Structure formats: structure tokens, C-alpha cells
């Protein structure tokens, strides 16, 4: 049996613009405690999880993809086995222990992408398939997009790679994608939770003008330069402009009352900068602190409005144990 610890993700910038071919974004992988365990089984293979989803039994050498909660995992499994070029696999038990919620209780850390990456990496490692990171990204990215029906695969890339990264999405032929690691300066990172779950796939289908995409890509490049030079002031200006671009371009419901309150509260502090992370319409902000000061009073002020501010730890990579 092996056990892997899989991170989640938060988008820093570019989450809508990156949904088109060769769009750009910045993402960060964060520790969440999601674990996947895999071992051989007798009889049938079995998928099991701690979220409210019934166990799924199947034969690993002859199974169909079924609609429903296990579609992400089954699609990832099928594509991983096929990519190996092998046949005659042993039956497997795959157990996913996720703190990321399910359905209306999702936390916004990229739970479906985390499950896809978990299955690809666990099966690749346990069966010794020898698939490299490029192959794993393509398998996981295609599987996630096929089931969700939309998306940039930036969440898959972030969870698979770990750390902070600049990402360019693939083109229509799944070519010309880029994953460039960025070293975060000595700034502390927080998440601000509004407690409202969002179905991301629906939001990513919103039509946006070409000018939006061009400006978003420019801002992502500015943000990457500011990170590389540890220029917090330039980083804050570009991140706030990216946020304003999203607010101006998306439906009014993008910025909920809680998100608006948190942004106003945090961004007036000169050494802090916050931005909606992901599709908006609820869920989370990501917050960067230049000086690492105590944010207890700000956290208490937000908590009075039902908003949670807590520190997060950037995940470097998937952690494997026996």
C-alpha cells in the first residue's frame, strides 16, 4: 500500500483569461491534507471516499465511465492505464480521504482537480508505470476537462507541480503549454473564506471580450516580474488592477457582499493585498502580507461578518509514504 498527500490550489491571477488557448495565469499549490491510498484487492477494484459518495466496485480491465460523483476518478484511471500501454492490471483499492468538501460544501481548493491528480499519481506510482510529469499533466488535464466540460487545467498543473507557478494553457492540440516555477518572496499567504460554494465549470463559460484576455495576460506577466523582483508595491498594483478588470467584465453577482467587504477591509492596508481566487460568485480570497504582521484584529473584524481569515502553507510537491 502507498499513500500520497495531494495539495489543493488557489488562483492568484488570470483564472478566466487562462481558459482559452495559451492563456496565462499564476497559481499556487496549498496544503490541504487530502490523501489517497492505493493497494491491491481480490475480486473487484473499489473506489472509496470519506465524502457522501457510495463505494464504487468495478473490474479494472473492463470498466465503463459512469456519470456521477466518480466520473473524475474513473476517467483519470482509464486514461492512466491506457497511456501506460500495458494490459492485465491487478484489481486495486483506491481510497480518497478529502477535507475539501463535496457538492454544495466544496471549499474552493480545486477538489475535482485534486482527485484527478491523486488518481493519476497514485496509480502511476503504485503500478510502476513510469509516466513522467509531462505525461501525467496531459492525462490529468484531459481527464478533468473532459468531465467538467470547461476549464484551463491550471488547477491540475498547480496541484501536480506544487509551489507558486506561472502557467500557460495548451492550445487546441494540447501543445505549447508552459509551467514555470516562481519563488515567492518573504511574503506570508492567507486564505479568506466566505463559506459559499460555487460550481466553477458553469462560471467559466461566461463570454468575455478579446480585450479582457489581452489585458489579463499583460497583468499576469507584470505580476510574475514583481514576484521575481520581490516588488510588493508593483505586485499589489497589478493584482488590484487584475481584480478591477474582473469586476468590470463579469456579471454583478461575481462580487458577493462578503467578498466585497473583505476586499475593501484588506486592500486599504498598505502592506496587504487580497484578490478573489477562482471563479468568484462566492468562495475565497487569497491574501498576501508583505511584513508578516499579526492579523488577529483583522481576522476578528471579518469573523463578525461570517468571514474566516487563516494562514495557509504553500505545498512544494506531492508527498508519498508507504
Automatic annotation (TrEMBL):
Residues 75-163 form the GHMP kinase N-terminal domain. InterPro entries: GHMP_kinase_C_dom, GHMP_kinase_C_sf, GHMP_kinase_N_dom, Phosphomevalonate_kinase, Ribosomal_Su5_D2-typ_SF, Ribsml_uS5_D2-typ_fold_subgr. Signal peptide: none annotated. Keywords: ATP-binding, Kinase, Nucleotide-binding, Transferase. It is an enzyme of class 2 (transferase). GO terms for molecular function: ATP binding; phosphomevalonate kinase activity. Pfam families: GHMP_kinases_C, GHMP_kinases_N. Pathway: Isoprenoid biosynthesis; isopentenyl diphosphate biosynthesis via mevalonate pathway; isopentenyl diphosphate from (R)-mevalonate: step 2/3. Its EC number is 2.7.4.2. Residues 224-306 form the GHMP kinase C-terminal domain. This is phosphomevalonate kinase. The lineage of its organism: Bacteria, Bacillati, Bacillota, Bacilli, Lactobacillales.
